[in-house]
Each structure stands twice: as C-alpha cells, then as structure tokens.
Amino acid sequence: MSSETIFTKIINREIPAEILYEDEKALAFKDINPQAPFHALVIPKTAIATINDITETHAELVGHLYVVAAKLAKQFGFAEDGYRAVMNCNENGGQTVYHIHLHLLAGKPMGWPPYQDKKKELI
Ligand code: 5GP
C-alpha cells in the first residue's frame, strides 16, 4: 500500500502550502481549513500512517514534532497564553489524512472535552 498522501505532495512542493517551518526531519504549514485563529500542522517528512504505526524507531522523530510545535508557539507569540497540540488517530479520532500530523491550535481558549456528545454520556 502506498503511504503517499496529500502531505507527501506538500513536502515535495507538488502542491502549495503556507510553510512556517522546515528542517531535515519535519515540516510545519498552515491548515487549509483552520479551526482556530492559528492552526498549523507539524508533520514528519517520513510518512507514518497513524499513531498505531509509531514504533520505538520513531520515538525521536515523534518527539521532534513537539520540539517544532514549541518553537512555533514561541515564534508566533502564544506560548504563554497556551494552545493545543493534538494528533488524531483513525476514524473515531477524526483522522482524515493518513500521514501523522500534530495539530497546533492557538489564539482562543480551547473547549474540553473535545467530542460532541449531546447525551453527555461518558466514553
Ligand atoms: P486530520 O483530520 O487527519 O486530523 O487532519 C487533517 C488536516 O489536514 C485537516 O485539518 C485538514 O484541514 C488539513 N488538510 C487537508 N488537506 C490539506 C491540504 O491540502 N493543505 C493543507 N494545508 N491542509 C490540509
């Protein structure tokens, strides 16, 4: 199965994105459909489909995504106010692009819990 997604195309500059940060291991760019005043995605350049596919060999790389998120938070001035850095997994997690990515959301207070459950049942 090919691990190519739209994010591989962004890494390879085959489709445009508003790129905020890049190094040899990771790329960060603005989300095309922002859910907060600031919404970026931090992705590894190596394609890993879901959190379920992360192994010990990826530990440093996945940690690096948070290092990049923290840099962006400082650079864009929302580190002190706070923000959310979250990764969705598979259908129930709300994942739609199967190349892991850290959502970096900031610029307004975040709600919790994140799910919409009208019956207020515990999950
Ligand atoms: P997920 O639902 O998998 O956690 O998040 C995927 C995210 O990728 C969504 O927030 C969606 O808006 C964003 N996205 C999907 N396609 C593109 C694209 O072509 N460019 C950019 N910049 N973001 C995208």
Describe this structure in words.
The chain has 123 residues and is an alpha+beta fold. It has a single domain, classed as 2-Layer Sandwich (HIT family, subunit A), CATH 3.30.428. The protein is 22% helix and 20% strand. The protein is built from three helices and five strands; from the N terminus they run H-E-E-E-H-E-H-E. It has helices at 6-11, 59-75, 90-93, and strands at 19-22, 26-30, 38-44, 83-86, 102-106. It has a five-stranded antiparallel beta sheet, with helices on one face. A hairpin with a 3-residue loop joins strand 1 and strand 2. The chain is globular, with a radius of gyration of 15 Å. Bound molecules: guanosine-5'-monophosphate. Guanosine-5'-monophosphate is lined by residues 6, 17, 29-33, 41, 88, 94-97.
Which CATH class is shown? Alpha Beta
CATH topology name, in short, is HIT family, subunit A
The helix count comes to 3
Strand order of the largest sheet: 1-2-3-5-4
Instruction: Measure the end-to-end span.
Output: 33 Å
Largest sheet: 5 strands, antiparallel
Order of helices and strands: HEEEHEHE
Structural class: alpha+beta
In round numbers, the mean pLDDT is 94
CATH H-tier superfamily: HIT-like
Helicity level: 10-25%
Total discrete domains: 1
For the record, the CATH architecture stands as 2-Layer Sandwich
* Ligands and ions found: guanosine-5'-monophosphate
Give the CA-based shape: globular
Beta-strand share of residues: 15-25%
- The whole-angstrom Rg is 15 Å
Number of strands: 5
Summarize the structure.
This protein has helices at 6-11, 59-75, 90-93, and strands spanning 19-22, 26-30, 38-44, 83-86, 102-106. The chain has 123 residues and is of the alpha+beta class.
